[in-house]
Design a protein that fits this description.
The protein has about 200 residues and is mainly alpha-helical. It contains 7 helices and no strands. The chain has helices spanning about 1-20, 25-50, 55-80, 90-115, 120-145, 145-165, 170-199. It starts with a helix and ends with a helix.
Length: about 200
């Protein structure tokens, strides 16, 4: 019971650090969000270009692979620089968990797409990403009461619904890119700046 209470306290401390931009956790988490939003946002734009026959799908696949490699490089570098953190709860570790979760989820979508030979699940992946971002932001917002985090959460949920509505249209990938830029990369810069100000 005592251990469970300590875990709960650690989780609460982590969420406060996430939302308030606490020192190295905010800096690391901010860098990870910038990498995720920027790299995958660019890949989504290239995916749109491939669907519009402006570039080949080979180029698109390469860009997605480079984005993934770049993201995990930032993730591992950030984790190594931060080292052990008291309580074991930091922004970087939280977004690392989201990153790993999305990686496994996309692997599952890939398997399901291969088995069904239907592109529908793959086309639904932007909605899944935006919905998970919405969960993360709404959790942070509910624990801190920060209005801009609520706005970010609602924006993420809205992006998930809009993306689902646009399935089958190439513009869906531009909407996804905009969501990544605005709802991951921009908040990442906010946290990074907060960490620098507090440093």
């Amino acid at each position: 019971m005592t251990e469970d209470m300590q875990t709960l306290r650690d989780d609460i401390a982590y969420m406060r650090e996430l939302a308030q931009g606490g020192h190295e956790g905010a800096a690391g988490g901010g860098a990870i969000m910038i990498a995720a939003g920027g790299l995958y946002g660019v890949a989504a734009v290239v995916q749109w270009a491939a669907l519009e026959h402006l570039v080949s799908f080979l180029v698109s696949n390469i860009v997605w692979a480079v984005a993934m490699i770049g993201f995990f490089a930032v993730l591992f570098t950030t984790k190594r620089r931060q080292g052990p953190v008291e309580g074991g709860r930091t922004m970087a570790r939280a977004w690392a968990g989201i990153g790993w979760g999305l990686f496994v989820l996309f692997m599952a979508i890939g398997v399901a797409t291969w088995k069904t030979q239907s592109p529908l699940l793959l086309s639904f992946s932007p909605s899944i990403v935006m919905a998970l971002y919405g969960v993360a932001w709404s959790t942070a917002a509910s624990m801190t009461g920060k209005r801009w985090l609520w706005a970010t959460a609602l924006g993420s949920f809205a992006a998930a619904l809009i993306s689902a509505y646009l399935i089958g249209q190439t513009v869906q990938w531009l909407v996804y890119a905009a969501g990544l830029f605005l709802l991951a990369m921009v908040p990442g810069f906010v946290f990074l700046n907060q960490a620098r100000d507090r440093g």
